[in-house]
Sequence to fold (425 residues):
Amino acid sequence: MSKKVKEKKSKKQIGKKILKIFLIIILIIALLAGIIACINVAGIKSNSSFVSSLKAVEYDNQLKPTLDDNGYYTFVTDEDFKVVQITDVHIGGGFLCIEKDRKALNAVSAMITAEKPDLVVVTGDITYPVPFQAGTFNNKMSAKLFADMMEQLGVYWCLVFGNHDTEAYSYYTREEISDVYLDEKYEHCLYQSGPEEVDGCGNYFVNVKNTKGEITQSLAMLDTHSYVDNDWLGVLWKYDTVHENQVEWYEQELKKLQAQNNGVMPKSLAFFHMELPEYQEAWYEYKDNGYNDTENVQYVHGKAGETGIIVYPSEHNYGFFDKMVELGSTQATFCGHDHLNNFAVKYKGIQLSYSYTIDYLAYTGIKDYGLQRGCTVIDIKPDGSFDSRLENYYQDKYVTADEKEEAVMEDYYGDELDLEQRELK
Fold:
């Protein structure tokens, strides 16, 4: 056999070996993907079974909203109206977080069942399709799982999107996840996608009227979007905020409601996911004054549990806060996003509020900590005034369907916080 023939034969054998190795690798990847997919499906089924076992919330007389002439859902009552804010549920929906997802569902269902709210507002990050923590890119499964739970509880609810609900790498876009919540089978979901000409998905109002037809409270929902400045994956924490045309829409809608309200500007509350830049301004002014009130800032409740710059808003500001001050309608804003911040301060006459969060998944080891986990309860009075309070999940009044885990009731960052910051209640 000639040397050339031998070399040719040798190259063919090497090529075959490389092809075999390549095919084996492909087969292993496919096998692993199949196993992961099966585990994901099994995990969703398991948590779906848990959701199906939940009992509907028992009301003496549940308020039922109707679509008003303005196209928004409207509740009618002459009594107090109770809102529960839930935020940053962070359902991963994958094989890496089956147990954590169940804990999150368990916590949310327990608080809603005990509080019996007229309306639940979820201020973003229902889903968390971050694959190295969740084990999936699929953000639709977790969105459906949460919506199924809310429908099972029979509670009226609405939402705004957070930055994690639709990541650049997740399977489904904001519009596609929006369609999930708009599904007719979710009769208790009051989410509306909002006008197409306005940036974002989910800019809308929910109104409360008395039997005279007067608007006693308008609840504004706004999309604060995700990331900006080429931070497509969110690794640089370049967060977005309420856009200029949303500010214009907010003003136009409130003036329409004013015209329908015998010329009286309705009182309102605003809900969104990521805090406005003014949250940072207000907190720094309060902190720099030794955690004492100033002319502009009055402490209400809660504390800042984050470290570093403490408050992490967008670097952009399109004047939403200034417009709220100008119009004089919005009494308070409610957001999530910074999981360990739960303070509320009044700034230039408007209460800027964080809520307790749910998160068992996003912050490393957060499942073991409990001081920051809970909800915000907002009691709206017939005259349009309101009270808000933080409610921790680990109170005895929140009886769970599944066993409630024990949690460390300490600050997540412990001694890294300022002493005064740790001692705020």
Remarks:
- The mean pLDDT is 92.
